[in-house]
Amino acid sequence: xxxxxxxxxxxxxxxxxxxxxxxxxxxxxxxxxxxxxxxxxxxxxxxxxxxxxxxxxxxxxxxxxxxxxxxxxxxxxxxxxxxxxxxxxxxxxxxxxxxxxxxxxxxxxxxxxxxxxxxxxxxxxxxxxxxxxxxxxxxxxxxxxxxxxxxxxxxxxxxxxxxxxxxxxxxxxxxxxxxxxxxxxxxxxxxxxxxxxxxxxxxxxxxxxxxxxxxxxxxxxxxxxxxxxxxxxxx
Amino acid sequence: xxxxxxxxxxxxxxxxxxxxxxxxxxxxxxxxxxxxxxxxxxxxxxxxxxxxxxxxxxxxxxxxxxxxxxxxxxxxxxxxxxxxxxxxxxxxxxxxxxxxxxxxxxxxxxxxxxxxxxxxxxxxxxxxxxxxxxxxxxxxxxxxxxxxxxxxxxxxxxxxxxxxxxxxxxxxxxxxxxxxxxxxxxxxxxxxxxxxxxxxxxxxxxxxxxxxxxxxxxxxxxxx
Lengths: 235, 224
Known about the structure:
Number of strands of chain A: 4
Strand content of chain A: 5-15%
Strand order of the largest sheet of chain A: 2-1-3-4
Largest interface: A-B, 23 and 23 residues
Radius of gyration of chain B: 18 Å
Largest sheet of chain B: 4 strands, mixed
Low-confidence stretches of chain B: none
Mean pLDDT of chain B: 92
Structural class of chain B: alpha+beta
Order of helices and strands of chain B: EHEHEEHHHHHHHH
Low-confidence stretches of chain A: none
Oligomer: heterodimer
Largest sheet of chain A: 4 strands, mixed
Shape of chain A: globular
Number of helices of chain A: 9
Shape of chain B: globular
Order of helices and strands of chain A: EHEHEEHHHHHHH
Mean pLDDT of chain A: 95
Distance between the termini of chain A: 57 Å
């Protein structure tokens, strides 16, 4: 059965798992999606990713591949027929990888920092940092897209997927903190890009509904706050 | 067209060393520009405005930053003597392990530094324990021989070479962290680097390297 050759272990709310959905969609690969429960991880997940025990995992011919950026590049290389996900030129590939590293290691860390910031001042500083990061990425968008719709040009590619997967959680941060982060005035390129990205054929049917994500986030953060209140005090 | 390859780096930086190893493995001629971290050159700031850090490779005027990104660029531009595996699955494994090693290093290094500059016994022990906890994870993976491919230095080995800094720093500051008895596989790996013809050309002389750490942290340790 062709579909069972490719399995993805993920969760509907995970932006990293969403990257894999999108990439496999671009390549028109049939796959089986396994929705994991992170509170009760499957044996398959624990065996496939014993190091980090995290989603997403791509399983291809029974071999597991972990780490979403490694998976994206694997998908591009294992299904080399067009459309490609990464650029073909080594320099443009390096630029795409550089910005993917920036988005994952710096910007997404700042986005997570918004949720963990305590107090109005810390929250504002965290939100400002996210916004400043987007200004930096706006400039990168200008250089990479060269006036076209996406980082990769006419079609979505690596960097579009890497950043685009966070749009739902960016919306969550905006709503929960009652602020605008992806500002049409400060980041006109990215603002326009975001709309087009969400409408893309490989994205629109797999991207989680942002209000469902918001409800989910509210529930999770509420539970976390409650757990914190009930936790025994540290000695 | 003549190739122009410049590497902005620091002799003491294990990240810029990765690039030197990669370039030498490929037999690529390059100009090394030593950067002063306290007085960064306008060229560096121009080529890496986002992070303002070394290493930066500039190939025919085009800058590439971030050591793992640069290594992949080198492998894709100069295709002989491959650094990464050719098979997509093996390549994905190499990328996974490289990220794993870097993530672990950034947990180990601050703890090791804490151990090395702490004035108090308790703080030093805490630093050592924390660093060793993370080193243990690396040791386990290495023991199961999951990391490494063949005999030559490849992507994962080159990435892992930054553990040499731990060994040199601990020797300079007289703190035992990465010991042979506790971490035999990691210790054997550091020996592999010491014996490798290409790596030997890129690593600074031991006395100079030790003196660097003594100067960097010795004063901090003495003042506590």
